[in-house]
Amino acid sequence: MSKTAELAHLFQALKAPAAARSLPALADRAREEAWSYERFAEVLLGTEVAARDSHGGEARIKAARFPARKTLEEFDFSFQRSVKKTVIEHLGQLDFLHARENVVLLGPPGTGKTHLAIAVSIRACLAGHRVAFATATEWVARLAEAKRHTGLDAELRRLSFIPLLVVDEVGYIPFDPEAANLMFSLVSARYERASLIVTSNKPFSAWGEIFGDDVVAAAMIDRLVHHAEILALKGDSYRLRDKDLAGPAGPAGRD
User: Fold this and answer.
1) Cα separation of 167 and 188, whole Å?
2) Are 104 and 134 contacting, i.e. CB atoms less than 8 angstroms apart?
3) What distance in Å separates the CA atoms of residue 193 and residue 218, rounded to the nearest whole number?
4) Residue 129's Cα: distance from chain center in Å?
5) What's the Cα-to-Cα distance from 79 to each of 69, 72, 120, 200, 238, rounded to whole Å?
6) Is the pTM of this model over 0.85?
7) 36 CB contacts (<8 Å, ≥6 apart)?
8) For residue range 184-225, what is the model confidence (pLDDT) as tens digits?
C-alpha cells in the first residue's frame, strides 16, 4: 500500500472522508509547489472542516423547518424599493445575532418580509447557528402544549439554547388573553439573551388590538424593539405583480 493510500485509509478510519478524497490531488500539488508540512496539513484538514460545515449547515436548515428555501441573492430589490440593499446585506453579516439583538419586519402581505426572515436565517444556519422557524400561531400552540405537559419555564429554557427564533405572521390571527401572555413570555425570556426575527402585517399601533390588551402589547413591543433593527416594507404584493386584477369595469380599488 502506498503512503498516500495508507493515509487515505487512516482518514477514512477517522471518519474524515473529504480529507481522504482530497489527499491524492493535494499531495501532488504539495510536492509540486514545495509546501511545508504545516501548509499541507492546514489545507488538507481545511477541506474536511469546510465539508463538515456545509453538511452541518444543511442539517440546521432542515431542522429549522422553513416553509421554503429563500436567499438574499434572490430578493428582488428592483421591485421592493422601500428597503436598502446595503441594510439587508448588513443583516446578512449576522452582527445582530452576535449582539443578541432582534429584527422586526413590518409591512403589507407579499412585500418580502418572510423571504428576508428566511434568507437571513439560512445565513445563520450556514454560519453554524441553530434556528427555529414558526408562525406566531404555531409558537403559541407549542408553548401552550409545553405549559400543559413539561412546563412553560422548561420550554423557554430549552428554546434559550437556540440562538435565533423566527416568529412569522404576527397579526394575521388575533390572540386571546392566554395566547397573548404566552407570546409575551417568549419575547420576555429572550430579551437581551437571544435573538428574534419577527414579521407582522400590522404596525405597532395595531398590536394592542392583535393581542387584545394594550398593556401586554406595549410591554412586548418595548422589549422587542429596545435592541432591534426595524424595517418597514411598503408597496404592492410581489406575488401579484404579474396578475391582472382589473375587472371589466376598470381597475379594482385598493385598501
Assistant:
1) 14
2) no
3) 20
4) 9
5) 20, 14, 19, 20, 7
6) no
7) none
8) 999 999 999 999 999 999 999 999 999 999 999 999 999 999
